[in-house]
Amino acid sequence: MLLILGLGLTTSCNKFLEEDPKSNLSLDGYYQNSAQAQATVNSLYRRGAPQRYSLAGSAYVGPAASVNTMLTGYFTNSYEGQERVCLFARQLTRQQNTNLITGQMNTIWDESYKAINIANAGVKYIPTISFVSQDQQKSLLAEAKFFRAYNYFYLVKTFGAIPLSTTPVETLEDNLYLERTEVAKVYQLIETDLKEAVQDLPAKTFADNGHRITKYVAAMTLANVYLQEGKYSEAAEMAKIVVNSAHKMTENVDLKMSSAYNKLRTTDDLSEVIYAQEYDATISTSNWWTTYAFNSSATTVFDKYSIFERVFGPTKQFLNVYDTKDLRIQPNQFFHWKYTNPVNNKTWESTDAGIWYYFDEQAATVTGRGTKDWNFYRYPEALLIAAEGIAKTSGVSAEAAGYLAQVKARANTEGKSVATYTAELQTLSADNFVKECWKERLREFPLEFKMWDDIVRTKMFPVISTTEAGKVDFVPLIGAKNGSGATFKETDLLWPISPDEIQRNNKLTQNAGYQ
After folding, report:
1. Which terminus, N or C, of the chain has the lesser number of Cβ atoms within 10 Å?
2. Per the domain annotation, does 138 fall within a domain?
3. pTM for the model
4. Can you give the CATH number for the domain in which 59 is found?
5. Domain around 166
């Protein structure tokens, strides 16, 4: 259901961490001045689809986007007996359990459409308001379009054809119930909104722009959209806007605690980060993120959090995606197996990997309040999209090889240079080069919930060797077995629309295969 929203906000224009709607003013009554428009757009930073990736609101199940990775069978939730959406995803049995995952589907649907309705109102009313600065008006309008596109992108990937609305629902007389719109038309709106955002937003890094959406956030998102659609030339073009920006890769100082990966874990506002969710200790903490770094036995080691659960745990088979010389698989880079609390000298140890990338040491040992921002997009993704897009459209050039080489070289522990990797990669066929891009995406972004999107767009499943570290083959998705031995069906590509939503709106139809 497209929900009517009260949008009155008391938020300061400069405080993005205070974005909770406070009143029930109607949209036309609310959009009277630039301060109101600013506050309303601010609210979009913490609503809808971004929250599905960044919100660690539960100690027992990760963000909604994390559950997609469970479909691969390569990640598990230790509490899946309670959080059955994870169990049904891993076992590929959602079709027989549609009613049992209604709550999760309702949250995704409702929260995304709430954000879309706010964005639609912004697109309608911001052009009618007098601003002191035309640049501010232009930027706010572009931000509203960005968030409309971002939420529709999440919805169309999740459910396929969805209701498409570009006008705000403001009264009970407005049409709340719409039919599903074909996927291509949804993507058309997403592309249009993001193109306009790329054109109108400032060409600054996210940090330098006060943590507001920038030209490069929009370009990165549009590159991601084009990649998902299989529009490789356009994806490369957008990715190269980011590649040629002030954003850059974080470098290793050493291969230990001052590696690039540890900097990404501990430090906000790095140039590598294109778009992030902001957290701090007073207004909005990162909630349970740091507890996801351990399993339940960590309750004997820490006293700042009452619960630790391995809600997003890699299987041993998945960890074989890395060659033994890959820095990312070394202890205390992306993963870890042992930790001693420096405050009480108690030690946690496990044969199952915890996720070091999620660990906020100050929060776990001293404050109990996580402050590390969540990264949605990082510079290596721009490099890998550009590399794949170029190879798909014009073959393996030095440019494409150089982009992929940068990601590989940073993870190498033997001093192998970008130039050496570039030369080697240019000897590959286009098909094998693209597969190297896919492998590098598996290795670089396993903890940021991008794996399932890649599998759906390529229709290929990565079969990770159980015996040979670093060996990955790709087989057609439908008919392949996931890491838990379940066989993929065509109906596994989409989630079900909530039966509650279908009951409210009889114009909706259910996705194939679901009860």
Report:
1. C
2. yes
3. 0.95
4. 1.25.40.390
5. 31-170+177-252+495-504
